[in-house]
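I wish you would study the pair of lines that follows with an eye to the fold:

===
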Amino acid sequence: MSKPWFEQWFNTKYYHILYKNRDFDEAELFIDNLYNFMGLSNEYVCDLACGKGRHSVYLNKKGLRVLGLDLAAQSIAEAKKHENGALHFDTHDMRDVYKDEKFDVVFNLFTSFGYFDDQSDNLQVLKSVHQMLQPGGRVLIDFLNAKYTVANLVEDEVKEVEGIEFHIQRNFNGSHILKNIQFTAEGKDFDYTEKVQAVSYDDFNRLLTEAGFKIETTFGDFKLNTFDEEHSERLIIVAKKQDGAN
């Protein structure tokens, strides 16, 4: 049985080449805004689906104790180069509970959710996060705004990065937003497809409630403006583990 798309694609060097020019300044501003809004200081937090750990590193620089978790072994190997006494990384499937750690906040940043074929896996992720949090702990989910994204899909695009032409096609199949990526590198042809569920606010509200959370607030962009399902590019949710929950 072949590995899921995210295990294959995220473990290639070409994934990191394609996305090498992401806006770090915007990402750090987003984390600054979250840090201030959530009133953080020296909490123990988890960066779930951390990739190579750049957001974990920045959270740690702001004084937080951080554990970054990701399924991609190559990404974690790279992230481990940044480890210190208050910053650690490990390979981990987000559907499972991580050991006996208890966090004050779990971050799930930059559309690192909804990679699976059905929503039962999404619920399993949130139930595991619930068990990984201290009583009253919070989860922060930064996801694409599905309604806006589907309405504004750029169907065809070509990006050249490090001499590689990435041919990108996007479409929506009724449940998933699909991004097919084809390119030739080092004399070989490659073909990967990213699949992200179009999880709406109502879907998240249902899933979070069932997992034992209550949504506290939502934002529609990295500047923490109000969420508008028609016009916001992002769906950013802060939800709290309910009292009396384990």
